[in-house]
Design brief:
Number of domains: 3
Largest sheet: 8 strands, antiparallel
Strand content: 25-35%
Shape: elongated
Helix content: 25-40%
Number of strands: 26
Amino acid sequence: MRGDSVIRRFGADSSGNFTIMGAGLMTLVIGCTALAVDVGAIFADRRKAQSAADLAAIIAASNLSNAYNAASATVVKNKYSTSSLVAVDLGTYTPNSAVSPQARFVTPATGSANAARVTLKTQTPLYFARYFTGTSEFTITTTATASSTALASFAIGSRLASINGGLLNAMLGSMLGTSLSLSAMDYQSLINARIDAFDFASALATRLSLTGVTYSSILTGNIKMSDAIAAALATQQATNGPSQATIALSTISQAVSSLSTKVNLASLIDLGPYNGLTVGQKPKVGASVSVYSLLSAIAEVANGTHQIATSVNLGLPGILNASLVATIGERPVGSGWVAVGAEGASVHTAQTRILLTVQVGGSGIVPTVNLPLYVEIAQGTAALNVVSCSHPDVSNSTVTLGVTPGIVDAWIGNVSMADMTNFTSKPNPPAAVLVSVSGLNVSGRAHAAMGNTTATPVTFTYVDIQSQLAKTVSTRNFTSSLTSSLLGDLSLSVSGVGLPIPGLTSAVSGTLAGATSSIDQLIVSTLSTLGVGVGQADVWVSGIRCDGAVLVN
């Protein structure tokens, strides 16, 4: 009974309740305070780790050729171990607002890398939360992406060493599928006039009534050649106003207006990291091109058969007549003749083959010599080796290209049309009949090759870039004329049923030797009209951007 009474009194007694509740609440407050200390430490360490990751990403993007080591050194300077650097991924960053931030960085890079993503993993000690989590450390993972804006726009080829209106009309007209009658002054004006590739793509989108599309979608689409040339005309008018170049281009545009030939401009123009921009958005670095260069490049890809056939009459001494068949190969996938990009980007000329059948005037026992000349120039390449940015004075910046002219392979021989169009192998022609006289045939065969496979560095100063200065790189072993090299290797033989003619082969050799200079000029003029040179490559840089590496979303 007494025990029950004590229990009842204890249950009825309310004194000390607040003390008990206070003790319980104090335990909760102390626990929350302890957790707050750990959570605060985690947030503070996360901010510190994020700052280190940001710096490492910027440094890595500024040194894309040595990104991991650059990021690792930055991490160590910020008091983290090298093991905390989980990954340094190189990729392509496209500043396209139409794409979600997570999708703007793509790795591996599509083409040349222009950005770096750094992943950092660190550990923060837990002081009180370990009793709840069962672990003494909390893992913090941070990432940062930075994009480099050390970019340049550059181009290769499109040379025109000499201007002959008749030759240009015949060859350009053949490629376009029409007839032209422009003067040499018209062509000179087209060469001197320059427009921007971004403006050209925007004008093309306007002509096609396309809105909200990217530069890539415009350039990769199959569009009418007539629309491309009309867009070039619109850009020329907007950029340079009424001029002789505008009138000449308008004449060409009208000549092709009824043609339905399609072209894919991505094989000519590579806007690199700006391909994903919406048409109308123009970056700080432009891509200036000659109107004639753009026109001839469009004509080149519009020529569906990649074959040109025309007469070539330049009025050269010793040459009675000449006919031309030319074929143009495909450029490497993903490379045009003009590009915007970071270090590692490249441009290429198209592989070019010409077969000139030249009738050389002689005298005496050899009134004429029919000389079949085959010349093949392999793809020339210019790679963007270094974009050296000077901060804060950009005028001290330079761009260095590594330039390799196309290897030249030339023959005097019986090259067939099948040989001309088979780009999978080089011709190895038999001897060709050069002279037929009194039942005798004089046949000849010769071969000459020149070129080097090592790139030559060519540096452009800021002044060179601003003035659009073109520089020429020649093959190192190009020490004599191409015709002289061929004639030095020429092997002649006589066959037939006629009576022997003393001095026949000597007369043939002498006739050809006397026309060496004219034959050289004929080859050079023909090739330069097609945008290439014998053992040479022309390159230029039209723009540079040096904003440095910046953090991106």
